[in-house]
Amino acid sequence: MSHLLGVPSVLCTHFVEARTDILRKVSRYLDLLKAVCPRLAGMPVASVEDGELLRCMRRGGVVVISDTPRQLRVVADRLEQLRRDEATAGAVSRVSGVPTLLATSNLKYQFNVTELAHRFLAPARKFADVSVTTSGWTALAASASISASSINASNRLYTAPASNKYATSATLHNGTGMVLAPSSTPEEIQLNTFSVTLTSGAGKFDEGVVVKAVAYNLVGNSSEATGAYLNPADGTTRALRIDTVSVAADRSAASFASNSAGQHVSSGTGTYPSTYGAAYDHTQLLTSNEDAQLVSGVYVSRSYSGALCYRDYTGFYTSGGLTFPDYSTISASSALTRWVTFKYTGRIVSGSANYVTIDMVSSGLTADFSTGVANHALQIKVVDSANTYTTGWMNCIAPILGTGLGAGSDGTACGYDQQTVAKRKVYILTGSPSTCTIYVRVGMPNNIDASITSATVTASTAFV
Question: Which helix (H) or strand (E) holds 339?
């Protein structure tokens, strides 16, 4: 008996004409086969019809069962490294100091396959299918097939290392690495020069990007193997992170200032900072400032629960010489606050304005606008560079006093008592001209679970 295509078949060298004699011999051979190979005991017996001959192989009167071909399987797999780095092709970027893959990053991968060069070579010569997904199996790139036609001077077949399977092999298989050598005792093959470019990386947040591989031969296909980054020098592993949701949500470019949702700028430090307003620099680490982290497209408090944030990122991998920070050391104390600040130009479109409406998309923020008690801070500052007119950081939550705004110094109450968390209504100095720049600053104490998605500003002569 032998195995073809993984399916047992029975072969024969002698047979007799009488049907009853054939059936008797078949039964005897099957009993013998089941005794020699218990795995056959539960298998269905093929039927024998008139005119059919069940063929059996005999050698010297002894039934011989050939070795069962070993199962094809991927025994080691990993994403080796980012093929491109930040300096050359923009494959990685940083958001709030934390590196992320980009929507079109290119990843180089490596994995080892047993039985690929077995005598069971697939006629189509497809060696493997490879895909890149999030930890939840959402595709980040189209599945790619590696076949005989994929092998060329740039992409060859290598003999996998005998030990330290994670190491990158430089030993070409079968001399040139161009053709598989069929064998009943095949070498383990390593594929280590192929890469894949993300095609569905936009709008993704995940901190467990993986490569998946399935290998093939004539027997069938392997189980799906999954892996992330593994250092070919020592076998240590690291996770791969993508946050293109935040890359798309980033508003730090100066062009956003003239938009109603504003430009993301530096918040400065303390309750009433004197240094603020520069385009936000995402290479800065949050351990050196008081700004909120932008993660999964929202600006979040230290204790935000809606996405992984303020983590120890040192266990992640990136290229381009970037390093990951440790934000787990940032305290969750209520005495500390994380801020996000937006800059608006041209919001007073004609004449002058007395009021500002701020439409806020947020979570976890609460306030009693009749008393000015809230779990967060909201400030507004108006600067007229043409007339050297500047207010302090006025308090948008506390209701305006009967005496008005005065000079609008730091902490001056400017809130309207009929506002809501989603639609803030505040007073600015009467007659603020169209040359004014407006800053809105939101502070979230480190112990609250809150986030800010956007703050859209409208300036007018009456509340809208």
Answer: strand 337-345
Name the residue with tokens 């009993």: 31
Query: Using CA of residue 15, residue 19, residue 25, residue 26, what is the dihedral sign?
Result: positive
CA distances from residue 392 to 6, 410, 428, 445 in whole angstroms, order as listed: 79, 4, 11, 21
Q: Cα(142)–Cα(200) distance, rounded to whole angstroms?
A: 8
- Residue 337 burial by CB count (10 A; 0-12/13-18/19+): exposed, middle or buried? buried
Residue 446 to residues 309, 394, 451: CA-CA distances in angstroms?
Answer: 12, 22, 11
Structural element, H or E, at residue 101: strand 98-101
Q: Report whether 274 contacts 266 (CB < 8 A).
A: no
Distant-in-sequence contacts of 407-412, Cβ < 8 A, 24+ apart? 408/382, 410/271, 410/272, 411/272
Match 């009433």 to its residue by tokens: 272
Antiparallel, parallel or unpaired: β 389-390 and 377-384: antiparallel
Which DSSP string corresponds to 383-399?
EETTTTEE---EEEEEE
CA–CA gap between residue 14 and residue 12 (Å, rounded): 6
Element (H, E) at 432: strand 423-433
C-alpha triplet 174, 180, 181: angle, nearest 5°: 65
Of 157, 154, 103, nearest to 128 by C-alpha is: 157
What token pair was written down for 220? Answer: 């069938």
- How confident is the model over 122-176, as pLDDT tens digits? 766 789 999 999 999 999 999 999 999 999 999 999 999 998 888 899 999 999 9
Give the residue from 368, 364, 363 showing the smallest Cα distance to 420: 368
CA distance 408 to 393: 8
How many helices and strands (H and E) does the chain possess?
3, 32
Distance between CA atoms of residues 25 and 15, nearest Å: 9
pLDDT per position as a tens digit, 254-283: 999 999 999 999 999 999 999 999 999 999
pTM for the structure as a whole: 0.80
Domain segments of the chain: what residues?
1-68, 73-245, 250-315+331-464
